[in-house]
Design a protein that fits this description.
Blueprint (H helix, E strand, L loop, with lengths): L2 H13 L14 H21 L3 H18 L5 H24 L3 H18 L2 H17 L3 H12 L2 H5 L1 H17 L3 H17 L14 H14 L3 H14 L5 H16 L4 H14 L7 H17 L4 H14 L1
Helix pairs in contact: 1-2, 1-3, 2-3, 2-4, 3-4, 4-5, 4-6, 5-6, 6-7, 6-9, 7-9, 9-10, 9-11, 10-11, 11-12, 11-13, 12-13, 13-14, 13-15, 14-16, 15-16
Length: about 325
């Protein structure tokens, strides 16, 4: 989606919840909460395709501002509390966009704001989302112990006791943290907990931000964990499983899984196949800027490629394309 179409879609979501500026303040009720939620869902759909960018972040912050403005006009305490939750979700979406773009400082600021709003809302789902994002932020900064602590805080939220799907995601995030610390046993144990919890999850209405998570995403996370603890063959198998089941509309996630597949192949010294696989990540994101998180993954691939196959012609050719696509 190009910038013009993005702004049109984001503007349409914002217009659906615009606040009148003249006349008496309108009563604010459930229909307003629903319209705001619909705008949030539209932004998440854009993220699924394009990934995190500043346009999405700005649109999410505008949604949060509208939710807070309406909160002041809320007809009942229950409505006001729900609007705090919506504002927290919008702010967490903005933080996620910053995370996907690897803008760590901005992500931290926004996560702090989202955490405050989630506390005001007393919403355990948003709280779990925020701790999950904190774990990802710590990972990006190389603070792997803190990433484990944040993922375990996500495990401790109330929603993980009510809904096994959220528990599974928290355990999967913990597994990544353990794998980055080189703790093989703990990483595999957390993966086992994630798989067990997911097997108990039932279909039910959930917020749009968690629509990405299920067997396909757990397979993609399994690939990350397996590769980092030195099991590239198992990582490759998990990536193939993920790519066979990640929905087509999750273009960014498919491109990330493709990059991880390329890394697993490269770590088995299958240089030609790895380069071919990595090139398809660019094809999947054709027409869209590559988010910072994906840039980092492709950077990891290129670094390992130059280490493991620096004299291979295919490595030099891929490097030429890599630099062109990167710019």
């Amino acid at each position: 989606m190009d910038r013009r179409k993005f702004l049109t879609a984001a503007g349409g979501a914002s217009a659906a919840v615009a606040i009148p500026t003249t006349g008496s303040p309108p009563a604010v009720g459930t229909s307003d909460v629903i319209r705001l939620r619909n705008g949030l869902d539209a932004l998440m759909a854009l993220d699924d395709t394009q990934g995190g960018h500043e346009d999405l972040e700005r649109a999410a912050l505008a949604g949060a501002a509208e939710a807070l403005a309406k909160q002041k006009l809320g007809a009942t305490q229950r409505i006001r509390q729900r609007l705090y939750a919506v504002a927290a979700d919008y702010t967490a979406t903005a933080a996620w966009s910053a995370l996907d773009a690897r803008r760590c400082n901005q992500a931290q600021v926004l996560l702090g704001q989202a955490q405050y709003l989630a506390g005001m809302a007393r919403d355990p789902v948003v709280e779990m989302r925020i701790w999950n994002s904190y774990a990802m932020l710590a990972h990006q900064r190389g603070q792997y112990g803190e990433a484990v602590d944040s993922a375990q805080a996500a495990q401790a939220t109330t929603i993980t006791r009510r809904d096994p799907l959220f528990a599974s995601l928290a355990h999967a995030r913990t597994a990544i943290g353990h794998s980055n610390l080189g703790d093989r046993q703990s990483a595999l144990r957390s993966l086992g907990y994630a798989q067990e919890a997911l097997s108990k999850a039932e279909a039910r209405p959930r917020p749009s931000w968690v629509a990405f998570y299920g067997p396909a995403e757990l397979a993609a996370i399994t690939s990350i964990v397996r590769d980092r603890i030195g099991d590239p063959a198992e990582a490759e198998a998990a990536s193939h499983k993920a790519l066979a089941t990640i929905p087509q509309e999750f273009r960014r996630n498919r491109a990330l899984a493709t990059g991880r597949l390329a890394l697993a192949q490269l770590h088995q010294r299958d240089v030609d196949q790895a380069c071919s696989t990595a090139s398809t990540a660019f094809q999947l994101m054709a027409g869209h800027p590559i988010p910072g998180r994906m840039r980092s993954l492709l950077g990891d691939f290129y670094r390992d490629l130059t280490t493991l196959g620096p004299d291979a012609r295919v490595a030099r050719e891929w490097g030429d394309r890599y630099r062109s696509e990167w710019s």
